[in-house]
């Protein structure tokens, strides 16, 4: 029943964010254990840097296969987040971390970003917190999609449908 509810919530969230398309999906692992299914949604035909910009909508869905504590989420994030943040970004991270709740198998967290609204953290469709600090989207989505993500394989899976980055040729 819980899984059915999650699928219904996913369908409702998809309808609410109709301006984004799934560009990738994968499974997060810790050793041999599968922890969660992940899917990344954004506009079509954008690169990763464009998808992480504050002017593009994006959604990351994480549906859990195992029980995880609040401490698990915070410890995982802290391993990837930079040690030095501006006071504004540090306060935003603390605010989001204070909103985390433990999950059971079948629960789904969504990070949903809409320009001019900020980044919302939802658990099973219920909004827990919204952060509108500039640059927070790229910072927090960067846990999975940044230069040093939690899992390089998961990042590849989540970004497989994005456009390639354009590299400017340097003058010779």
Write a structural description:
The protein is α+β, with helices and mostly antiparallel strands. It has one domain (2-158): Chalcone isomerase. 35% of the residues lie in helices and 27% in strands. It has a 6-stranded antiparallel sheet with strand order 1-2-3-4-5-6, covered by helices on one side. Strand 4 (108-114) and strand 5 form a beta hairpin. The longest helix is centred in the N-terminal third of the chain and has 15 residues, at 2-16. It is globular and about 35 Å long. The relative contact order is 0.21.
Note the main attributes of this structure.
Chalcone isomerase, globular, 6 helices, single chain, alpha+beta
Give the helix/strand layout.
Blueprint: H1 2-16, E1 21-30, E2 33-42, H2 48-51, E3 58-64, H3 70-80, H4 87-99, E4 108-114, E5 118-123, E6 126-131, H5 136-145, H6 152-158
Antiparallel strand pairs: 1-2, 2-3, 3-4, 4-5, 5-6
**Can you count the helices?**
6
pLDDT average, as an integer?
89
Indicate the CATH class: Alpha Beta
CATH topology: Chalcone isomerase
Helix content, binned percent? 25-40%
- Could you give the order of the helices and strands? HEEHEHHEEEHH
Please report the distance between the alpha carbons of the first and last residues. Answer: 63 Å
């Amino acid at each position: 029943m819980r899984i059915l509810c999650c699928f219904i919530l996913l369908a409702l969230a998809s309808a609410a964010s109709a301006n984004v398309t799934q560009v990738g999906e994968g499974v997060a692992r810790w050793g041999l254990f599968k922890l969660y299914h992940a899917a990344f949604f954004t506009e079509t035909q954008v690169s990763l840097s464009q998808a992480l910009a504050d002017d593009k909508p994006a959604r990351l869905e994480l549906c859990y296969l195992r029980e995880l504590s609040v401490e698990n989420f915070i410890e995982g994030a802290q391993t990837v987040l930079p040690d030095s943040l501006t006071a504004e970004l540090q306060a935003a991270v603390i605010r989001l971390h204070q909103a985390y709740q433990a999950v059971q198998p079948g629960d789904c967290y969504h990070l949903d970003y809409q320009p001019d609204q900020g980044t919302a953290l939802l658990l099973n469709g219920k909004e827990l917190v919204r952060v509108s600090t500039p640059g927070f989207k790229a910072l927090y989505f960067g846990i999975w999609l940044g230069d040093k993500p939690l899992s390089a394989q998961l990042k590849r899976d989540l970004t497989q449908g994005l456009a390639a980055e354009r590299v400017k040729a340097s003058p010779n």
